[in-house]
Specification:
6 strands; Aldo/keto reductase; 2 helices; two-stranded parallel ribbon; NAD(P)_OxRdtase_dom_sf; globular; two-stranded antiparallel ribbon; alpha+beta; 22% helix
Length: 78
Amino acid sequence: MSPRLPTCQLGKNGPPVTALGFGAMGLSWLGAYRQRTATLYGAAPSDEERFKVLDRVYDLGCKFWDTAGKPLNSTAII
């Protein structure tokens, strides 16, 4: 069973979301746009590794994911 995280309503009429969000910017390749080999945080992880991270975040109960102001390819993978 996944842990229960506190929730809050998103906006005035929005759905309930977890009060703790997941910042997905680190899943994107930021540094080398052409080579797609580096991120802001180091070497770009494989899609398989990135899906494992997202699966774990979801399993932990976090349902509020933020892809940042410049979503790059973190939005695509989500």
